[in-house]
Amino acid sequence: MLTIDNTSGLRHALQRHRDNGERIAFVPTMGNLHEGHLQLVRRARQLGEVVVVSIFVNPMQFGANEDLDAYPRTMTADREKLFAEGTHYLFAPGVEDIYPEGLEVQTVVRVPDLSETLCGSSRPGHFDGVATVVSKLFNMVQPHVAVFGEKDFQQLSIIRKMVADLCMPVDVVGVPTVRDEDGLALSSRNLYLNEEQRAIAPLLHRTLLESRKAIACGFDNFLQLESHARMQLLQAGFIPDYYAVRDARTLRAVVENTEEIAILAAARLGSTRLIDNVRITLNPASDWGMLATR
Ligand code: PAF
Q: Which CATH number does the domain 2-175 belong to among 3.90.1150.10, 3.30.70.120, 3.40.50.620, 3.40.1710.10?
């Protein structure tokens, strides 16, 4: 595995593979790699002959009062994990490589509508930061395929929309969320949870599963479902940010021709913000009949 920290070195190294007709699969990350990220790398290995993983803690996607400085940086351990998974290139640029003229004068990529709801309402500007850095990384790596986790379902939707709208020649592939045995979705931020919070945390996923079961059984009063779930989370010690039953394509309200429902939640335990989601594909032939759950 070769570690490269600048764009020209990366372009030069990847050109050889492109000339050989090899497919480049890319996994963008912010490091502090856990099993969820390694699953993305494994999927990338299936999708391309050359796997590039980036580690860049992107300041543009953190709000003023968020955890940019505290965000765990574990480069040595990350490098070992990526090497063990058969990664070919680790791209680890510095802030000065990605934003050479500073954030204030950086061109911004904004995906309207999808970026404004759910996490976008409570983290204004967050998805502009994500879309901007991902489009820059796509231009630097020029991958054939890029792999993202479904845990951040809104992020995945925004990247798919950006790629479609800007005609980027990249296939975007989503990988199912990896969970601990008790259902908690793996996240770098789980490290911030104390013992008591860690014991409560799996309730977020359990609540989503209960909502999904109710919908699968034909319950279609989503407002009631959402407020019941929020109450349950509050009683357990969470501060819910949102709990929403949405059309999985638009992330807006479920409508008559919705084909897939996403139930998405974000909630704080102390100062740690957890997100999760589950989905249901609807069978158009039978009202709210469930085809598949994810
Ligand atoms: O999901 C992440 O880790 C980040 O948002 C991403 C996609 C690497 C962009 O910084």
A: 3.40.50.620
